[in-house]
Write a structure and sequence with these properties.
Elements (H helix, E strand, L loop, with lengths): L1 H86 L2 E13 L8 E8 L11 E6 L2 E11 L1 H5 L9 E9 L8 E2 L18 H8 L1 H6 L1 H6 L2 E7 L2 E3 L5 E7 L4 E5 L11
Antiparallel strand pairs: 1-2, 1-9, 2-3, 4-5, 4-7, 4-8, 5-6, 9-10
């Protein structure tokens, strides 16, 4: 009997030991699984965070690239606007004022008296106005015009930043051009470009060789000249009216009316 009790006691202790070992093993396995599950989750979170950080860096780099591109585009637009402004800039280079008229178209003896004066950059007369009488009431302004390549104008080239003109003569539609009133001397530097100092070699050659540039594309291109030719804008003269003669930086001459001058009478 005693041996039976001892055997049962040993069996119970063995079962208890196995239970304890099983519990400990279970707790260890649970701890192991929980530890590595948390570690895996942490590694996954770190990987996600690294991916998000890389994506954020990529977005920042893209934003920076777009900002640089935007700034470049803004500069291009500003440069383009400045170029357009320069190319379409009109200079006021002369003024015509109608002093009076006499005679009539019907009788064929209509005469118009006018004053012509070239202006500086501030719109002030460069010399005493020339008083001229033309036949008829339509006056032509005969001029030689040099136009430079647009790139020189856009770049603000000091010698080629705008078209230049030499006024040859004024004549009425009822008279021959050769009989018109002479203004600047052909081949000489125009009044408007005499700025108090000695003209540069380029300015001298520009007018001395005008017709060479007009007829020799290679020579013209070498000097940055886009075109060299004559122009003769004309306007119907109205007594008391004033007209300004403009020269576009990249183009030719135009004659546009200003506000009416003070009354001067309609007789010569």
């Amino acid at each position: 009997m005693l041996k039976l009790l001892q055997a049962m006691n040993s069996f119970v202790r063995a079962l208890l030991g196995l239970a304890i070992v099983g519990a400990v093993a279970g707790l260890g396995w649970f701890g192991y699984e929980n530890y590595y599950a948390e570690k895996h989750a942490l590694e996954k979170s770190r990987a996600q965070l690294a991916s998000l950080s890389k994506e954020l860096d990529d977005r920042r780099q893209e934003i920076n690239r777009l900002n640089v591109d935007l700034e470049s585009k803004k500069q291009e637009i500003e440069k383009l606007n400045a170029t357009i402004k320069l190319l379409t800039l009109d200079q006021r280079i002369a003024r015509i004022e109608v002093l009076g008229q006499e005679g009539s178209q019907e009788q064929g003896d209509l005469r118009s008296r006018l004053s012509f004066v070239e202006l500086n950059e501030q719109g002030q007369p460069l010399e005493k106005p020339k008083v001229i009488t033309v036949v008829g009431d339509v006056a032509y302004l005969d001029a030689l015009v040099v136009k430079f390549d647009d790139k020189h104008i856009a770049e603000g080239d000091p010698l080629r930043s705008t078209s230049v003109a030499l006024f040859r003569r004024i004549f009425g539609e009822a008279q021959r051009p050769v009989d018109g009133f002479l203004l600047d001397v052909e081949g000489a530097q125009p009044t408007a470009y005499r700025r108090g100092g000695k003209p540069s070699e380029f300015e001298q050659q520009l007018w001395e060789r005008f017709w060479e540039y007009a007829n020799d594309p290679v020579k013209a291109r070498r000097e940055g000249v886009r075109a060299a030719h004559g122009e003769a804008p004309f306007i119907k003269l109205v007594p008391g009216k004033r007209y300004r003669v403009e020269l576009r930086a990249s183009g030719g001459l135009s004659v546009v009316p200003e506000e009416a001058a003070a009354p001067t009478g309609n007789t010569l």
